[in-house]
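Q: Hi! Curious about what Amidase looks like structurally. Here's the sequence.
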Amino acid sequence: MISLADLQSRIERGELSPDAAIAQSLAAIEAREKDVRAFVCHAKSAKAAAHGPLRGIAVGIKDIIDTADFPTEMGSSIYKGWQPRADAPVVMMLKRAGATVIGKTTTTAFASRDPTVTLNPHNPGHTPGGSSAGSAAAVAAGMIPLALGTQTGGSVIRPAAYCGVAAIKPSFRLLPTVGVKCFSWALDTVGLFGAGVEDIARGLFAMTGRAEFSDIGGAKSPRIGVVRQEFAGEVEPAAEQGLAAAIKAAQRAGASVQTIDLPEMVREAWRIHPIIMDFEAHRALAWEFSERHDEIAPMLRANLDETVGLTPSQYDEARRIGRRGRRELGEVFEGVDVLLTYSAPGAAPKGLSTTGDARYNRLWTLMGNPCVNVPALKIDGLPVGAQLIARFGNDAGALAAARFLENALAGSH
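A: Let's find out. The predicted structure is below.
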């Protein structure tokens, strides 16, 4: 993989020109794209910006995010060739920081569930996850050092885990979703993928200018609460091994670790997440559903058909439960700094007919808390991640704990 932190250091020292760094990514795309299929479209040549902390950094943009220089097709034939006039604000944040947008990465249709053509760089017979498949795979394959994705259920953390990269789903609305194709306005969250935790922290700092993301070091002896989310269903042995490895490494490195039982209303919030998501999806995709119904990808179309009867009263009750869940979850963080749980039910599933399951992610998306995937280990050549969650708004704390865990895992090998 290409380290953003390493590129920045080499550019600052004058060992590498920004244009040479961009050329490195272009060459890697040329070499790997036919085997990974991470991009919908990409530049054949590009120049680095003259200024900015991300000059020389090639970035991939998930193809539901508007770009003025590339089409935005949203993984759907309905929008084939669609060309926005303007960049989404989150893309402009990257450009103003000096990044070079190198292309659009694949997405499931409207960032939902129908798999893309992208293959897992670790084993092409396994899914890279979804819906941010292309962004996770492009970073994992060493094509680009930074990519944008989005999460409505688990579409940043899960593909990061399957592809073995670091990723953050920030606190809700830390990054703007204007210019991003909406699926659920209460859930959609823009996130980042990078080779390591320092890379995504540097990306966030450059984009937001927030001082708390500058020079993120590992947390000192964090208090970690382990949450196994039994209410979310069975976990596969690989995921349990990944979590156990994270716990052991953290304890050896000086963290205090305890098992946490989540409050009842937080568990209820997990249950009602799909009600909020599907109710809002019917409004966000109302034109497509009414005017181009048969062109909607089959798995998404079937889900929309099935949930067409959701009522405002069901939605309002689900939102009430979500609000109560957030209050109760806030109390959990009185006793711990971060929560530790599975990033996915297991390693990437075999076959390309599924993108995996978001059942260990969706609660945290609804709660709005920052989540970070840290690659924990490999089992039979496939990565397994661990997920860290911090209090809402404490994205810097989530990243610091993730750096602690990343360092601890590196020291345990």
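A: A fun detail: The CA atoms of residues 1 and 142 lie 4 Å apart.
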